Amino acid sequence: MTLGKLLIGATPLGQPSDASARLVRALRDADIVAAEDTRRIRSLAQALEVTPTGRVLSFFDQNEASRVPGLVEEIRAGATVLVVSDAGMPLINDPGYRLVAACAEAGLPVSCLPGPSAVTTALAVSGLASDRFCFEGFAPRKHAARMTWLQTLAHEMRTCVFFESPRRLAETLRDAVDALGADRRAVVCRELTKTHEEIKRGSLAELADWADDGVLGEITVVLAGATPTADLPTLVAEVEELVAAGTRVKDACARVVADNPGAPSKRELYDAVLRSRD
């Protein structure tokens, strides 16, 4: 028996013409199209002048787990299953992870039809460093959880990309000012690739003031990484001073890292201290 395959298909963020030729063929030929929103994928297919020949079924966060066993069996029996989200690359804060993991566990073929992603699109237009970055999904909804999360980014030197609801954007940016400082640079990308696309750059304080007037549309935020405030030899010297005063090396490293935004990780500093003693 010939095995089928799972295809992960990136869909346009806003412009149907951004769809790849491979996605168009897959929409037409797949035995099953598993879509986050069946109405949106049918609208996209219509805009691309393609008619799916296979079944189109819903595949979203709330039903993904229950759909996975059946889809795995379909693939095992020879079906080609195409997974698509509302916009961008599936699995990137969208459904699909469980199905890919199940196919990998079962030894079934998995392939990707690359294309648009709000994460990399925002990073590309941000003007911030793009050589190293992290993606954080959606910012936490609740204030306390959001502040805890933002504090984990205080020393993060990589550029950070995250999503936010337009209704919570101003509040999140205000919290970021409190947790990260008013001068940290950031970029708010609104309605990427769409008619009303807007790229707003500035400090966190400036962007918070701008967002206070209200913002509409889909939002992606790009946050500049922390700027180191001390070089490594200086931090090592601070650790040694604390150690000489009776503090354990690991505790001293933790204290120095906490006192220096943008410092390396505790492990990196600990290793540097040990190297300096050789």
UniProtKB/TrEMBL annotation:
EC primary class: transferase
InterPro entries for this protein: 4pyrrol_Mease, 4pyrrol_Methylase_sf, 4pyrrole_Mease_sub1, 4pyrrole_Mease_sub2, rRNA_ssu_MeTfrase_I, SAM_MeTrfase_RsmI_CS
Catalytic activity of the protein: cytidine(1402) in 16S rRNA + S-adenosyl-L-methionine = 2'-O-methylcytidine(1402) in 16S rRNA + S-adenosyl-L-homocysteine + H(+)
GO function terms (MF aspect): rRNA (cytosine-2'-O-)-methyltransferase activity
Signal sequence annotation: none
GO cellular component: cytoplasm
Record's function text: Catalyzes the 2'-O-methylation of the ribose of cytidine 1402 (C1402) in 16S rRNA.
Protein name: Ribosomal RNA small subunit methyltransferase I
Native organism: Mycolicibacterium smegmatis (strain ATCC 700084 / mc(2)155)
Gene that this polypeptide is encoded by: rsmI
